[in-house]
Input
Amino acid sequence: MIINVNTSKAYEIEIKKHLLDETGPRISRLFRPAKCCIITDENVHRLYTGKVENSLKTAGFEVHKIVFSPGESTKNMNNLFRILRYLASEGFTSSDFLIALGGGVIGDLTGFAAAIYMRGISYIQMPTSLLAMVDSSVGGKTAIDLPEGKNLAGAFWQPEAVYMDTACLETLSKSQLQCGIIEMIKAAVILDPSLFELFNTHKPQELGSFIEDAIIKSVGIKKRIVETDENEKGIRKVLNLGHTIGHSVEKLSSYNISHGHAVASGLMIAAGMAKAGGWAEENLVERLFPLYEKYGFKADYGYSPAELAKGALSDKKRRGDIISLVIPRAMGNVTVKDIHISRFEDLIAAGLELIRKRSSAE
Ligand code: NAD
Output
């Protein structure tokens, strides 16, 4: 399956099992033989770099590699400079390119290095985690973390192409799969009830039979949003659904609750707030709850409304006394509400109460 993205730079996304074995022929359509640098992490390197490297060499490319430790802490300034200095020392020029082979951490770091090396060189996204396939590899948002906070330095820089080999999903752990699944459920709530139904009508054990369809739908949603608002000035903000309260949950747990599980909680609390605020056109709490139980997500980690509100109010989305929150109205329909901070905690409390009633009714 090929999906074309028409942003300031048009590019194609190909989704296919065992696509890594065809890396060389695919990239030969885009570049004449040149230098390329595969950037990856140790886990992905052990499993997949060999295939990509062999295919590229056979197609005549000069292949370089940089392998980082896995995990969020890799997305830092030192590693960004390590990439830039390596490229300079090996004489990379604007006709050469980078390949991000890995999850969202590698995609964000590589994309940012590509955006600033010699004022911008080409890069290819080859996402290997489900989250990177359905979210971070599409749309050209790149970043590193600073000691002061996550994703504080970055750029919009679109890739030359995105190649997704769905066979890579077979080596992901359950919790890594869940991080991708919640982003897909989020995309369904934002724009596509039929994607929700895919998850709703299947059992988690059947994931293998519908995951490719679900990826195609999720990527289609992300494509539509980034084409409309490439630089996140407006509509693209809806992709933050669940993230404002989710970041609070993450911080309150001292990052022991993963980003995906925290966003899942934030999404459900936002659904509760939508109902409590009178903005919901249907009872999303009722619709989402069984799905959460089925896929192992939790809505309520026992944090108080005051704790959740405090964390959320330090979020980037706050402007003075107003916080902008993405609120789901119905399946496939969201809106952005500006909420006065004096009302915020009460709304969270009312939303949580609905969720807690639902839990005790189970
Ligand atoms: P990640 O890159 O850390 O990958 C998660 C783990 O999975 C790592 O240990 C990695 O080695 C391993 N892994 C990856 N593919 C594998 C495979 N096929 N088999 C076995 N193990 C594999 O994290 P992630 O969840 O992919 O992405 C999270 C990052 O993405 C965060 O830094 C977040 O800020 C960023 N993000 C960016 C955007 C964007 O638009 N740029 C959107 C969402 C998230």
